């Protein structure tokens, strides 16, 4: 019996979300089918309220004939606060099959409206407890549960950070709540199901309050009290009894306050904990709190409160140290084996008052000593004083560190060796769903991919930070936008970027200018490629998840940014004024400068065009026809002005930098002969630099993409495989386990780049991942159809070093796989396409009559929608299913071009003339050509006296490839 199933039901990107404020939540699902080519023909959704028996229907769509299966908006009666809604789905497919009902899922609303808040913001009495004191505050409230309960929910938040306790138990496993938002405009609250923590009779709810981002030290400017100088808490606990009655416990002046064992806690500097000052049973019933202080109402708003939007921050993995050693300086250090972000948990038995200190750092210096120089003013220090009772266990509460190495001081017996089994590295970040996989035949590239993922984990802690260790850790817009494609492949970023984009919109200035960091806590606005996060990120989220609502929500922000740029330049169609970071940290920068050689107005105008293109496309998606027309005209004029200003009549760019050529190609600012010349000259710039890059933050993310797009994929692969400085693999070979901020954060001699700006966990250059997934493994989306509804599988082969690559991605529709393997004789490809999607596939260099699919000739397959031969190979379109392709490798394993194998890519004059006479009889031969390189063949078509056509060029390249392989053999 054939099977058609509906599973993976999600509401607002989540499985069974608790406490959401979305009034028309969106539902998505995936299908499972044992038949190839399965498409959804219709769906039916049923929603009930309060109970899951589906007897009294709240909303029933009936049979809806459509292939849409993601982002389906709830269309029933208005939702009510604090209510659970159950839903189920069935579908019909193109084989006239009807699925059974899916398993039941649910969502539960939060308070939905600020008017639902009955609690008061409270803080300890300022007359009894210094509001500016460093120790964290403890707040407690006792109450009685009078009868049998059926449910209980806490809705709570705090400024700055808080943890909840109920009857002595920690509530939930979230950390650093409520996260970091633009607090004056948006403050998240969290919802907790505490039904199982309550007992009939006496109960106690407790809150611990710390400074966090709200009032602690922020940024390299050492700002304090950015949002306020008083901690405060807000909580409502609803208890629902079995008889249907309800009781509410809220924060008010009946709560009691004290300080506890956390004497100091700061995001950058760490935490001091004195276990001797623990107050046993403080959140348990029957605790005597008569000596505790009173509380007062704090005048804080409710209008900025929103339900939790982002993935919660949690411990997502625990790793054990791999080594402990004594440094040449005499320090005792443990090595986690991985540059990570989070905290160390340790166990200890020691006499009362023993002071244990942990100092965290990323690397060792060339002498083997632990290196703190790049931390700036961030101490990253943990102090713990023992209480002297049995085995004590501790991990900090309201801080986090970026580190691989930890200097240990005061641990009992450490002079005889540390007991590594007593130390644990707890990895902390936003608990995003892992969606991407990549691997290939080169183990160093596989380590690079691991470094990219670890860099994302470490810097996606409630917002996309630039670094997790020094006194910065800010949401830099430029870093986020260049990494967004890679980020959304590796992890599901829907909730993460929804939350952050709302902060961007909230902090955007009235004139449309976008601050350089979000939340906006430092000065500086308006830089090209940084402020463009306002357009690039919502558009990329839409492309990945089909999130039209977010696109609509951010549209005015996107438009405001483009209009801000439009008003800046001396010409309406150029951006040639104001401050810009330029190609930040590029290697072609002048001495003692962070800014690369590419002119800032060149970069600014390119991104002006790019954001305008995105805005035009967004307007088209949102059916804003007037704006489509307006921004189409604006884009055309920007491109025309760019070419007048920055491109010579013969097609040469005015800026001879790699970055200038990369971004002009990548964002389609040049066309025709100028485009061909730009691609050719970019390739030559790489070759002339001995296959090394010189690009910075602006050029690097697009470098390999532009090369592959321009027809020079082999050069892109060569750059990826480059192991000498500067390169991605240079850092890997230096022992990096995350991505560095600088190409030479550690120099060849073991010394460091300047302490002023030297993070060893800085994900921007990890954006190479996007090219690896799309071009090497060949997995990408059709940009005209969002959310991978139409998939592209188009790997590019190059180099004997890469004989296998695989990428897998868990899309909104299901798992996509592109995997290939080469030998001298054969190409094997495996492709997996989820139901309700289709895919366009390229089998590179294949001959149609030669291709086998699952052991049968492709031309005999009934499951292939279309197929045809092209100059690149065999192109075909398929529906869902798993496909196994095999065909002869007509090219063998073709080496990449390098100095060592230069002969491989050369032909003598006799062979060159023979090939030209065969494929282009009568052609005018350019004088002085004694040898011919394959990468210059395209350029021959531009030789003034030549009559070489594009078809001739393609034939020449194919023939040249065959002759090259014969030379290798």
Automatic annotation (TrEMBL):
Residues 783-850 form the Alpha-L-rhamnosidase C-terminal domain. One of its GO terms (molecular function) is alpha-L-rhamnosidase activity. Residues 328-428 form the Alpha-L-rhamnosidase concanavalin-like domain. It comes from Metabacillus litoralis. Residues 147-317 form the Bacterial alpha-L-rhamnosidase N-terminal domain. InterPro entries: 6-hairpin_glycosidase_sf (IPR008928), 6hp_glycosidase-like_sf (IPR012341), Alpha_rhamnosid (IPR016007), Bac_rhamnosid6H (IPR035396), Bac_rhamnosid_C (IPR035398), Bac_rhamnosid_N (IPR013737), Ig-like_fold (IPR013783), Rhamnosid_concanavalin (IPR008902). Its EC number is 3.2.1.40. PANTHER family: ALPHA-RHAMNOSIDASE (EUROFUNG), ALPHA-RHAMNOSIDASE (EUROFUNG)-RELATED. Keywords: Hydrolase. One of its GO terms (biological process) is carbohydrate metabolic process. Residues 435-776 form the Alpha-L-rhamnosidase six-hairpin glycosidase domain. The keyword S-adenosyl-L-methionine does not apply. This is alpha-L-rhamnosidase. It catalyses: Hydrolysis of terminal non-reducing alpha-L-rhamnose residues in alpha-L-rhamnosides.
């Amino acid at each position: 019996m054939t099977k058609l199933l509906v599973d993976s039901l999600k509401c607002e990107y989540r499985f069974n979300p608790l406490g959401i404020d979305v009034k028309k939540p969106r539902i998505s699902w995936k299908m499972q089918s044992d038949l190839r080519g399965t498409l959804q023909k219709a769906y039916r959704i049923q929603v009930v309220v309060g109970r899951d028996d589906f007897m009294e229907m709240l909303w029933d769509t009936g049979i809806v004939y459509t292939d849409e299966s993601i982002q389906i908006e709830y269309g029933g009666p208005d939702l009510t606060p604090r209510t659970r809604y159950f839903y189920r789905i069935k579908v019909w497919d193109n084989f006239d099959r009807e699925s059974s009902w899916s398993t039941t899922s649910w969502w539960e609303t939060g308070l939905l409206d600020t008017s639902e808040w009955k609690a008061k913001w409270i803080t300890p009495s300022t007359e009894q407890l210094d509001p500016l004191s460093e120790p964290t505050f403890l707040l407690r409230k006792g109450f009685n549960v009078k009868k049998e309960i059926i449910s209980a929910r806490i809705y709570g938040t705090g400024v700055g950070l808080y943890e909840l306790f109920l009857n002595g138990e920690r509530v939930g496993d979230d950390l650093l709540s409520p996260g970091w938002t633009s607090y004056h405009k948006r403050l998240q609250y969290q919802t907790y199901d505490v039904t199982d923590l309550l007992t009939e009779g006496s109960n106690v709810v407790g809150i611990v309050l710390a400074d966090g981002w709200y009032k602690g030290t922020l940024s390299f400017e050492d700002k304090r009290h950015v949002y306020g100088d008083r901690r405060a808490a807000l909580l409502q606990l609803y208890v629902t009894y079995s008889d249907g009655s309800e009781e509410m416990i809220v924060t008010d002046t009946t709560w009691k306050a004290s300080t506890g064992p956390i004497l100091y806690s700061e995001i950058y500097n760490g935490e001091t904990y004195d276990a001797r000052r623990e107050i046993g049973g403080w959140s348990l019933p029957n605790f005597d709190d008569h000596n505790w202080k009173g509380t007062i109402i704090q005048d804080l708003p409710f209008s900025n409160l929103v339900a939790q939007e982002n993935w919660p921050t949690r411990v997502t993995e625990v790793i054990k140290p791999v080594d402990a050693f004594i440094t040449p300086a005499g320090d005792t250090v443990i090595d986690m084996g991985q540059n990570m972000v989070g905290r160390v948990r340790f166990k200890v038995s020691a006499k009362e008052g023993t002071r244990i200190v942990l100092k965290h750092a990323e690397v060792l210096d060339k002498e083997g000593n632990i290196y703190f120089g790049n931390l700036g003013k961030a101490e990253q220090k943990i102090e713990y004083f023992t209480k002297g009772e049995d085995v004590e266990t501790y991990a900090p509460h309201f801080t986090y560190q970026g580190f691989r190495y930890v200097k240990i001081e005061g641990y009992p017996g450490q002079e005889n060796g540390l007991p590594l089994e007593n130390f644990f590295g707890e990895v902390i970040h936003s608990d995003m769903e892992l969606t991407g996989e990549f691997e290939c035949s080169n183990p160093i590239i596989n380590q690079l991919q691991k470094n990219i993922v670890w860099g994302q984990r470490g810097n996606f802690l409630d917002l996309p930070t630039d670094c997790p260790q020094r006194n910065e850790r800010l949401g830099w817009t430029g870093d986020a936008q260049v990494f967004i494609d890679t980020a959304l492949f590796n992890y599901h970023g829907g909730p993460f970027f929804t939350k952050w984009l709302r902060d961007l919109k909230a902090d955007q200035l009235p004139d449309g200018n976008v601050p350089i960091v979000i939340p906006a806590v430092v000065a500086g606005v308006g830089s090209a490629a940084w402020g463009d996060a306002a357009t690039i990120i919502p558009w990329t989220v839409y492309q990945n998840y089909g999130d039209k609502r977010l696109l609509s929500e951010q549209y005015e922000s996107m438009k405001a940014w483009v209009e801000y740029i439009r008003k800046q330049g001396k010409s309406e169609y150029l951006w040639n004024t104001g401050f810009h970071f330029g190609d930040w940290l590029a290697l072609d920068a002048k001495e003692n400068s962070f800014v690369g050689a590419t002119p800032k107005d060149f970069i600014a105008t390119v991104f002006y065009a790019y954001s305008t293109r995105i805005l035009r496309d967004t307007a088209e998606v949102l059916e804003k026809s007037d704006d489509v027309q307006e921004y189409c005209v604006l884009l055309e004029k920007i491109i025309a002005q760019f070419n007048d200003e920055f491109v010579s009549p013969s097609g040469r760019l005015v800026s001879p930098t790699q970055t200038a050529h990369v971004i002009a190609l990548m964002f389609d600012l040049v066309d025709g002969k100028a485009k061909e010349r730009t691609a050719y000259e970019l390739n030559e710039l790489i070759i002339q630099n001995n296959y090394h890059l010189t690009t910075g933050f602006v050029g690097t993310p697009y470098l390999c993409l532009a090369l592959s797009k321009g027809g020079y994929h082999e050069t892109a692969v060569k750059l990826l495989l480059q192991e000498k400085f500067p390169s991605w693999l240079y850092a890997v070979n230096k022992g990096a386990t995350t991505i560095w901020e600088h190409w030479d954060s550690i120099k060849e001699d073991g010394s460091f780049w300047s302490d002023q700006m030297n993070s060893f966990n800085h994900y921007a250059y990890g954006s190479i991942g996007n090219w690896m997934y799309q071009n090497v493994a060949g997995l990408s989306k059709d940009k005209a159809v969002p959310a991978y509804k139409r998939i592209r599988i188009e790997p590019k082969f190059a180099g004997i070093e890469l004989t296998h690559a695989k990428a897998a991605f868990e899309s909104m529709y299901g798992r996509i796989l592109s995997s290939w393997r080469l030998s001298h004789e054969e190409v094997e490809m495996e492709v997996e396409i989820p139901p309700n999607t289709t895919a366009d596939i390229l089998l590179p260099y294949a001959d149609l009559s030669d291709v086998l699919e699952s052991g049968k000739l492709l031309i005999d397959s009934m499951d292939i929608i279309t197929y045809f031969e092209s100059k690149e190979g065999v192109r075909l379109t398929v529906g869902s299913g798993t496909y196994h392709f095999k065909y002869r490798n007509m090219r063998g394993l073709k080496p990449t071009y390098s100095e060592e194998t230069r002969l491989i890519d050369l032909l003598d004059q006799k062979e060159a003339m023979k090939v030209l006479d065969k494929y282009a009889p009568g052609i005018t031969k350019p004088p002085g050509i004694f040898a011919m390189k394959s990468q210059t063949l395209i350029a021959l078509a531009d030789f003034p006296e030549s009559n070489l056509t594009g078809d001739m060029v393609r034939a020449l390249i194919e023939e040249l490839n065959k002759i090259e392989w014969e030379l290798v053999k």
